Every structure is written in structure tokens, then in C-alpha cells.
Amino acid sequence: MGEESKRAMKKRLPIIIILLLLGGAATWYVLARSRDSRPSALELYGNVDIREVNLGFRVAGRLKEALRDEGDEVKAGETLAQLDDEPYRHQLAEARGQTGSLQARLDLLQAGNRPQEIAQARAVMHEREVTLANAERIYKRQEELLASRTVSIQERDDAEAAYREAEARLHSAREQFNLLEAGFRAEDIAQAKADLARAQAAQAATELQLQDTTLKAPADGVVLTRAQEPGAILQAGTTVFTVSLQKPVWVRVYVQEPDLGRVHPGMRVNVYSDSSPGKAYTGKIGYISPRAEFTPKNVETTELRTSLVYRLRIVIDNPDETLRQGMPVTVKIAR
Length: 335
Hints:
This protein is an alpha+beta fold. It has helices at residues 2-36, 86-111, 115-147, 153-182, 186-211, and strands spanning 42-48, 52-56, 61-66, 73-74, 79-83, 214-216, 221-226, 233-234, 239-245, 250-256, 268-273, 281-288, 293-294, 308-316, 328-333.
């Protein structure tokens, strides 16, 4: 039995070795497949989304000149067009005149009456005080003479009338002096201040309208369209130029829901265009839409167009002139 067992074991040994080799190969194959099944670089598809701005005047008028044409590069603050500003300059001159007039009136009220006027009123008051004192003495004398029948009743009445008149004239002069010395009422000054403030606001609005007759570029960019020519009568807000802004340059791409967990704001990406397939533009994810949507028809993907996706905004770090608006691009995100 011992010899037979040994012979049987020798016959089974090659089979056991082959089975062990096959098991090892199978294990290696499974591990290799699982390693290769790890997520590869994620490719997303979209388009360059450079922002545009329609430029127009905030005021109406006749277009005097347009200084740029389609394709011209413009800098921030550069003058692009000019309206005929003559009507607005006349309005500003009128507003300044009105403001100056009301300012002078307010200064007059706040300064009060001139010292010469007050001195004149004081002199008149003193003069009438003397006149009243004299009329009073004559009237009293006439009263005494009437008692001794030296003067008539008519003479006494004339003296009394002169005395009463002098008394009233002195009262009037005293009131006039007090009025001039007190100056103008606080209500008149407050009204003058309100009138001046309203005129100053109107002047500021007119100055702003005059400034708005000059159209300036809000940022660096390129003129896409020139919609108006000199001589045209424009309404406020009419588009004169359409400018494509150079910065920032955005790429709008879409990611499917299963891959949403592989992206996050701030992640670095590489962007490739068909015109320069070997050049990688670097950027980072700046925004992930919280709402799902259907893939736009102008985005080429290998999946069904009816798949729900999430929109991403990628800000390009190193844009150049080769990235044109609407250009299709491929975004690659490393594993």
C-alpha cells in the first residue's frame, strides 16, 4: 500500500501544479482587470463662452462720430463714440445760472440787511421821536391856553391831531428799524435753501447728461458689431457697439450625473481646442450648477443628447486670441 500511494501521488503532482498555475494566472487577470477598471481621465465637452456687452448712450441725441469699427481692439475707458452735445451744454449753462441766482438770494437772506439801511432807519426813528416830543409840548400848551380861553377849540384839536400823527409815525419808524435789525425770517431762509438744493440737483443731473454724450468702453475687448453711423438720431439705450470682453474667458461644459462626484469647484483642468490640439490651456472649475438640464444641441458628446447633465463654468488662466467665442473645446480632468 505504501508503494502504491507514492506512485499515485507522483501521478497527481503535475495536475496539482497545473491547477495552482492556472489559479495564479486567474487571480492576476482579475486583479489586472480591476486595476484597469479604475476611473480614467474625465473628458468633458463644451464651448468658449466669452461675454458680450451692448453699448449705447443713456441720453438721446444725434450721433456726431463713431471712432471704432468692427474688429478693433479697445481699452477700458477709451472713447468709442460721441453725441452732439450742444443742446446739453445749453441746458447746463441755464442750470448753472439758476443755481447762481438762488445762491445769491440765500446769501442775501443769511447776511441780513445792510448796515447802512439799519442806520438810516435808526436816524428816521430818532427824527420822529423829536417830532413827537415837540408835538406833545404844543398839544399840552394848547390845552392850557384853551382853559384860559386864549386859543380856540379848533386850534387845540389841530395840535392834538399833530401829536397823534407824530406818535403813529414814530411807532411805524420804530417797527421798521426793529424789522431791519432782526433780519429775515427763518422760514424765508429755509425756503431759499430748499430752492437752492433743488437747483443744484437739477444742475448735477444736467452735468451727468452732458457726460453721457460720450460713450466709453467699460473694459478691454474687441468690437464685434458697429450698429450706427454718424448722423443717426438715437434714442436712449440704442445699441451703437457690441463689444466682446477679453477677460475673463469662460468655458461652459457639461458633466453627467454619474461623474458629478469627480468634479468640484477649484479643481484644475486642461482645455484643448480643435485649432490647437497640442496646446493645453489651464483653468479651474469656478461654478457647478445645482440644477440638472438637458445637454444643449450644440455640444458634441458621445452620449445621448437627451441625457441630463450639470453645467460647469471653467475660468481659463492663460487665454489668447485663438480662443474665439462659441469655439468647441474639450476639457480633460486628470484621474
